[in-house]
Amino acid sequence: LIGDQEASENADITEEPNADPDVDTAKILSDLDDDTREEEVPETFDSEELLPDWHQFSLHPQLLKCLYSRGFKSPTPIQAASLPLALTDRDVVGIAQT
Q1: Cα 79–83–84 angle (5° rounding)?
Q2: DSSP the chain
Q3: Are 75 and 51 in contact (CB under 8 A)?
Q4: From CA 98, how far away is CA 90, in angstroms rounded?
Q5: What is the pLDDT of residues 50-93, one digit of tens each?
Q6: Where does residue 75 rank: exposed (0-12), middle (13-18), buried (19+ CB within 10 A)?
Q7: End-to-end CA distance of the chain
Q8: I want to staple 74 with a disulfide (CB 3.0 to 4.6 A). Which of 11, 12, 43, 53 is the partner?
Q9: Which has the higher per-residue pLDDT, 34 or 38?
Q10: Which one, of 59, 92, 60, lies nearest residue 78 by Cα?
């Protein structure tokens, strides 16, 4: 049983035995890439100006650049409520609709 399990875990994930021939997987993946394109980060990155809602948390500059490049211009309500606590080394459990 272990050998069979290892074989299935190491199987080529590109194999799609029940794939629908009418589905254009390459097109779907291309569309996903279009949706996840990064926004160019300005050479002179001023987080206070570009991300005022994030800047208040005193996050690492590289993290702020990443947030900007991925289009996260402001925190969600649950992030805004939990980050101040988390940044003081407190455990946080939050519930929010995704």
Answers
A1: 135
A2: -HHHHHHHHTS-TT--TT--TT--HHHHHHHHHHHTPPPPPPSS--HHHH-HHHHTT---HHHHHHHHHTT--S--HHHHHHHHHHTTT---------
A3: no
A4: 23
A5: 999 998 898 999 999 999 999 999 999 999 999 999 999 999 99
A6: middle
A7: 39
A8: 53
A9: 38
A10: 92
Cα–Cα distance measured from residue 41 to residue 13, given in angstroms and rounded to the nearest whole number: 34
Q: Is the pTM of this model over 0.70?
A: no
Tokens 């649950």 found at: 78
How many residues are recorded in the chain?
98
Taking the C-alpha atoms of residue 87 and residue 60, their distance in angstroms, rounded to an integer, is 12
- Which residues, other chains included, contact 67 with Cβ-Cβ below 8 Å and sequence gap of 6+? 51, 54, 59
Nearest alpha carbon to residue 82 among 95, 71, 70: 95
Rounded to an integer, what distance in angstroms lies between the CA atom of residue 92 and that of residue 38? Answer: 29
